[in-house]
Structures are given as structure tokens and as C-alpha cells.
UniProtKB/TrEMBL annotation:
Classification via CDD domains: AlaRS_core
Official protein name in the record: alanine--tRNA ligase
Domain Alanyl-transfer RNA synthetases family profile stretches: 1-410
The enzyme's E.C. designation: 6.1.1.7
Length: 410
């Protein structure tokens, strides 16, 4: 099933259950706590908090999301990406656990055709109500696992709505990993759908619950790209129909097929950068702009390590699919790649000689940053790959002193 068919099937199903389909929200909002939209529920935060009323008690969307919290895993796992589409159904003081569970199970095994005996569920340890509900829906007790809040409690990682979750996983088979369910191997048992029982108001951490929300709500997210990976029988997210053209272009540009993790990283990072540029974000040194810059720089460095000495990301950017109409990303990508390649040539010589001498002192890291424009996160990443420690505290101290001198000289 193609990715666009997955989206249509999902939205049609929930429209048939009296959900109003709304357009996706923007990739970034004026929420000061968030750089980017990281979940389908972001645009509905006021509804969950009782600050505004939804147009209908039941809603459904297909939302493009960006998350960089797992950036170091990209290419090394099958299931992680910095951008993805989240298919969601939402209920505000309407239905709750049983309906969301039953409908998810029905859609996955019905229209999407997944085998019921390859589905596993997790619940928050202590939530025996959810365990009993899954069993009443025909899920064997041995395929419902109880996990801790780090796995089965959801929040936006900032103050706001939160709640316990039940997640649905698919067993990709013994060729992928160990048996034993998602508690044992999250590559073999890949998470597809997260059902959030939104009922609490979170403080500064998940351990700080300020009280109940005005109502009990449902917020679910089905990862369209992960489901496409399963339904299309491909080994990772970058091999799905929407990402494959870019992966193919990356491979053609390198002329190699022996570095799949590197190819997948470049594919992922470039796709996300193109989406963000299309949404109006430009590379910069702070905030959202720095995320775009970091993604492109990581992609360029990986290409350099693969032996690609000339700029190539501009033409590859044209292969990115599902980009909404707007300003083309290629000129922005080309300028950023050219500038960073100059930075790499200038800074690499100093960095390489410093790494040969052992631990990187704060002074060296600062010189790379201040004189050569070498980003500190890239310095740390390169040093970590070679097992060399970095004095990041010393760098931070020198940066503070530099800023104070700059302010005093104004």
C-alpha cells in the first residue's frame, strides 16, 4: 500500500466514525516551549487544556512532524527519522480507552490487513484497566506488556497536557531481532500506534503532575511511515515509497553501495531540511535556523567521508517528495553546502592534528568555532567517533567570556 493510500484509508475510517478532518497544522507555531510541531496534538493543546472549544468533539488529521531528539540514531536503526507523518484521531470529553483501542485494532487488522497474532501492546505499569480492555478485545495476556513511565507516559516534554499510554507494536519476525515482545527488542517489535489517554496537567517534568485536565481526552498517533515500512515490506524508513527517490539519488551521487547507514542519514537529514526550508525556516546560528543548518552540515560531512568532494545536495533536494508548494529549497541548500564545505576544509586540518594529540581542550574547541566557524556539536561528534574526550565545560566558559567582552564593547 502506498503512503498516500495509507493516509487516505486512515482519514476515511475516522471520518466514518464522525470525526471531522482538519488540515495539518504548521511545522512550527508560536508556542514558546516548542521549536517545531513534534506531534499531531500540538495544534489542539488549547482544547486539551480547556482554554478553547474544539469545532467538534471528534477530530482527525495527518500531521507532518519534526523531532531531532533521536538524531544520533538516524541510519543506525530502521525506525527513527527526524521528520515523519503522524496520523491522529482525537476525542475531547467524548470516547475514551475502549473505543480508541477497539478502533485501532479493527483498522490495523481490517483495512490495513495486518495479522492479529503479530500485534503486541504495552501499557503503563499499574494500569490494569487497559490490560483488561485489551484482553476483552481478544488480545492474549502474553502479548500485553507492562512498562514504566519512560515508555508508557506521554507529554510534550514541556508543561501542558499529559497522560498514560498504550502502544501497539508489530512483530517484524525473527530475521530482524530477538523474540520476547517490545520490552526485549524495539527493532523487531516496531511501534506503530500510540494511544494517549490525555487526562493530566504536567508541570516542569513528567514526575510533576499538577492535577487533572478539565476532561478525559484521547490523542492517538499512528506513524504513517512506519506502517508503510511494514506494509511495503522494506527494511527501514528510508526505503519506503516517499523516501526512496532521495535515497536513490544519494547513492547515485556517492557511487557506492557499501555505506547504507550513511546514505540513510543523508536522505533523512536532507528531507527534513527541505521540509523546513519549504515552511519558511532558513539556516542560521540559533533556534529553528540552527536545526536546519545542523541537519545540512551533518549530511555534508557524511558525504565528504564517503568521498564526495563536490557539492551535490542541491540536485538531490529536487528528489524530495511531498514538499508543499512554496519557495524552492534547492538554492538555500546549495548555498549552505558550499559555505560549509569551505568551513570543513579550513577547520579539518586543525581538528585532525588536535585529535592526534589526545583530549580536546576548551581552547581548541573555541578556536575551531570562533575562527573557523566549526560548530561545537560537530566537533564533539567527530571526537566521540574517535573516542577522544572533549572539554565542553571549558568551551562554554570561553563562550561566556567572549559574549561578555562583546557586550562590554558595545
Amino acid at each position: 500500500m502506498r503512503s498516500d493510500q495509507i493516509r487516505t484509508t486512515f482519514l476515511d475510517y475516522f471520518r466514518g466514525l464522525d470525526h471531522l478532518e482538519l488540515p495539518p497544522g504548521p511545522l512550527f507555531t508560536d508556542d514558546r516551549d516548542l521549536l517545531f510541531t513534534n506531534a499531531g496534538m500540538v495544534q489542539f493543546k488549547p482544547f486539551f487544556l480547556g482554554l478553547d472549544r474544539p469545532p467538534r468533539p471528534r477530530l482527525t488529521t495527518a500531521q507532518r512532524c519534526v523531532r531531532t531528539v533521536d538524531i544520533d540514531r538516524i541510519g543506525h536503526t530502521d525506525r527513527h527519522a527526524t521528520s515523519f507523518e503522524m496520523l491522529g484521531n482525537f476525542a475531547f470529553s467524548d470516547y475514551f480507552k475502549r473505543e480508541s483501542m477497539a478502533w485501532a485494532l479493527d483498522l490495523l487488522t481490517g483495512d490495513f490487513g495486518l495479522e492479529r497474532d503479530r500485534l503486541w501492546m504495552t501499557v503503563l505499569r499499574g494500569d490494569e484497566e487497559s490490560v483488561d480492555l485489551w484482553r476483552s478485545l481478544g488480545v492474549p495476556a502474553e502479548r500485553v506488556q507492562r512498562l514504566g513511565p519512560e515508555d508508557n507516559f506521554w507529554s510534550m516534554d514541556v508543561p501542558g497536557p499529559s497522560g498514560p499510554t498504550s502502544e501497539i507494536f508489530y512483530d517484524r519476525g525473527p530475521g530482524v531481532g530477538r523474540d520476547g515482545g517490545p520490552a526485549v527488542d524495539s527493532e523487531r517489535f516496531v511501534e506503530l500506534w500510540n494511544l494517549v489517554f490525555m487526562q493530566y496537567r504536567r508541570g516542569d517534568s513528567d514526575d510533576e503532575i499538577l492535577g487533572d485536565l478539565p476532561g478525559r481526552h484521547i490523542d492517538t498517533g499512528l506513524g504513517r511511515d512506519r506502517l508503510a515500512m511494514v506494509l511495503q515490506g522494506v527494511p527501514n524508513l528510508q526505503e519506503t515509497d516517499v523516501a526512496r527517490p532521495t535515497l536513490r539519488a544519494v547513492r547515485d551521487a556517492t557511487g557506492r553501495d557499501d555505506e547504507p547507514a550513511a546514505h540513510r542519514l543523508v536522505t533523512d537529514h536532507l528531507r527534513t531540511a527541505v521540509f523546513l526550508v519549504g515552511a519558511g525556516v532558513r539556516p542560521g546560528n540559533e533556534g529553528r535556523g540552527y536545526v536546519v543548518r545542523r541537519l545540512l552540515r551533518r549530511a555534508v560531512r557524511r558525504l565528504v567521508l564517503l568521498g564526495v568532494d563536490e557539492p551535490v545536495l542541491g540536485p538531490i533536494a529536487d528528489s524530495v517528495t511531498e514538499v508543499p508548494p512554496g519557495a524552492p529549497a534547492r538554492p538555500v541548500v546549495e548555498r549552505e553546502e558550499a559555505a560549509f564545505r569551505r568551513t570543513l576544509r579550513a577547520g579539518n586540518r586543525l581538528l585532525e592534528s588536535a585529535l592526534e594529540r589526545g583530549p580536546l581542550g576548551g581552547e581548541t574547541v573555541f578556536k575551531l568555532h570562533d575562527t573557523y566557524g566549526f560548530p561545537v556539536d560537530l566537533t564533539v561528534e567527530i571526537a566521540r567517533e574517535q573516542g577522544v574526550p572533549v572539554d565542553t565545560d571549558g568551551f562554554a566558559r570561553l563562550m561566556r567570556e567572549h559574549r561578555e567582552r562583546s557586550r562590554a564593547g558595545r
